[in-house]
Amino acid sequence: MTPRHLYKVGSIFRLPVVKRTLRWSGRFVLLLVVIDVGYLVVIWPDWEKYADGPVQPSSFIRNYEFTQLHHADWPELRWYPVSIKNIPRSMIRAVVVAEDSRFYEHEGVDFVALKDAMEYNLSEQRMVYGASTISQQTVKNVFLSPSRNPLRKWHELLLTFGMERNLTKKRILEHYLNIAEFGRGIYGVDAAARYYWGIPVSRLTSRQAIELAATLPSPVKNNPRTRTKSFQRRIKRIRRHFWR
Fold this sequence. Notes:
It is globular and about 70 Å long. It has a three-stranded mixed β-sheet with strand order 1-3-2, covered by helices on one side. Helix content is about 60%, strand content about 5%. Helix 4 crosses helix 11. It is mainly alpha-helical. It has helices spanning about 5-45, 45-50, 60-70, 90-100, 110-125, 135-145, 150-165, 170-180, 190-195, 205-215, 230-240; strands at about 80, 180-185, 185. It folds into two domains: about 1-45; about 45-105 and about 160-240, Biosynthetic peptidoglycan transglycosylase-like (Penicillin binding protein transpeptidase fold, Orthogonal Bundle), CATH 1.10.3810.10.
């Protein structure tokens, strides 16, 4: 029997194995989908609770409180949620300029920014920029975890669309400005204003608002106290667009 015949015989015997593998793989994927749908049903928010009333502590804030118990060197939680009516327009503008310039135009995901970020990251052959919107960051902070796994990103995407359909842009900003991290254990713009300048958020100047917005990407390392070079460069970038 020639090697060619042997190959054909081997292929015949391998075919059922391939079919069985594909069949069981399909069943496994279907099982994962069913489990994930069930998980989403369990965690899916009652959006009416988030559409109005006081801002509730986020999952990141609750996680900090728990983790802080095991880190004696970490400061106590600072978090003083306030109504968006008490947050200056300059603070709102600075954050939108810094984090999501098309916030009022997209429906949760900024596909233009996503495309630009992907092209730039590919050209640099490394991850330089992300393209998460304020809505996506709000969902991640309020409901999810810092994990970067694809499943978490998928949940973030679905929850973002859900939030955009049920909450106004103003309310989404109110949540974000009250739960964003501005330093170790410092959550929300009022806590940040009191920590860095000893004033309530309502008294922030435009310069101070820009500095807080510049803190957001890596607040523990870059903030108005550390004043790193990266922090200073970000202030300049925000300032250029802020006054347009």
